Amino acid sequence: MDVAGALGSRVSVRARPVGPSAVLVDVAGPGEALALAAWVRDRSLPVVEVVPAAATVLLDGVDPAAVLPALAAWEPTAEAPTGGLVEVSVTYDGEDLDAVADAWGTTVAEVVERHAALTFVSAFCGFAPGFAYLAGLPDELSVPRLDSPRPRVPAGSVALAGTWCGVYPTASPGGWRIIGRTDVGLWDTRREPPALLPPGTRVRFVPA
Amino acid sequence: MRLHVLAAGHLTTVQDRGRPGWAHLGVPRAGALDAPAADLANRLVGNPADAAVLETTLGGLAVRASADCWVAVTGAEGPVLVDGRPRGHARAERLPAGALLELGTPRRGVRSYLAVAGGIAVEPVLGSRSTDTLAWVGPPRVEAGAVLPVGLPPGPPAALDTPRPGRPGPLRLHPGPRADWFAGDPVAAMCHAAYTVEEASNRVGLRLAGPPLERVRSGELPSEGMVLGAVQVPPSGRPVVFLADHPVTGGYPVVAVVDAGDLWRCAQLRPGDEVRFSLARPAAAAAPTR
């Protein structure tokens, strides 16, 4: 539904109902999702969960009739908020380094250099507590997933899939291409916030 | 006071009302799957609504308390024994210190709740004592040999309470965000079909076998946030109803959402049970929940 017309706003927000108490708002990409999630939190709109993702923001635990008009005031911006910068020390010895080098048409040494030169942004968390989808890999460096996931990827594995980079907070099955490992704690429920890389955090990888 | 666990059956976990508000960090909400049953058990022993209880799956739980206490068992109905003598379901019962409380296999339903006056007082994690079985956030699953702390009883147990009426009939569906990924009117198609609960169902989701929904869009849906009760349809076309421990994001289209008032029924459906759906009336959705 287009909620802009109701308030005569110039901005059009497209939102899909998700049952009676949630809406899924379409956005142009992860940067816009982050911006909208921050905007909703800043306004203290009555909402239980704000879940930014790749191309949507889920607002759960809301009265759609109340929240949709409020959203009309949002002006879409692709500019991601600049959160804190976290440096993650990596030992680049992942078992998929060669495959990534092949995909990029370069050498393993060059893969490490390029990866460590990028600044990523945590776009959203999902899959596991503290697992952040890190955006920042350019399209031409997109990496295919494994055809069949590994049954166990060790905690601390630094891996790539598509244009995403991620660090496994705990050991789990996984189909991403592993390029290295880190000892940094990604998830600690006694820490505030418990995730090291909550959405909006900027991330750089530093060769150990 | 402490509760000594002698047997835990298939799966016993500590549950309260869950930990909503952490989905953006990847944390499932968790919480009692049959929330009205857990609420009733707490009311019966005089606990506040947010006290933690034990959720046990298909019976098999056996405990001893270190001091006299009030207990109540609700949810899936089966034998409740104290030192081998039958006790009532869904009523406050006195459990003497050292006596053995056993929950037998329920005649129907899946999940039973044991409330103890004072509540299970394990350390909360991110504001909740619920165990999430997807990522194991929260206290560890309850195993034989566990010793669980119990809080101070808040007051006398309720003299009486009204068990909820059963609600036979179909589960009510609201339209979901990605119905347009399927041929025709997929919600109507679900309302005309009969489904069967699959063995692989758990606290994460109720898995259903039935006529597959036909997708009209190929390709992948970028991961997006998921709600409690979402009916997600993987490439097999067989729907999964997301329950309390569901992943916070998912990449399969959500065709519909089960009405919040029917989620407790999903918690009590057994493998092989038949499931039917009907379209929820928008008016019903606006009615206040209990």
UniProtKB/TrEMBL annotation, chain B:
Keywords: ATP-binding, Hydrolase, Nucleotide-binding
UniProt entry tagged with the keyword Mitochondrion: no
Domain Carboxyltransferase intervals: 24-290
SMART domains: AHS2 (SM00797)
Residues annotated as signal peptide: none
Pfam families listed in its UniProt record: CT_A_B
Protein name from the UniProt record: Biotin-dependent carboxyltransferase family protein
Record organism: Nocardioides abyssi
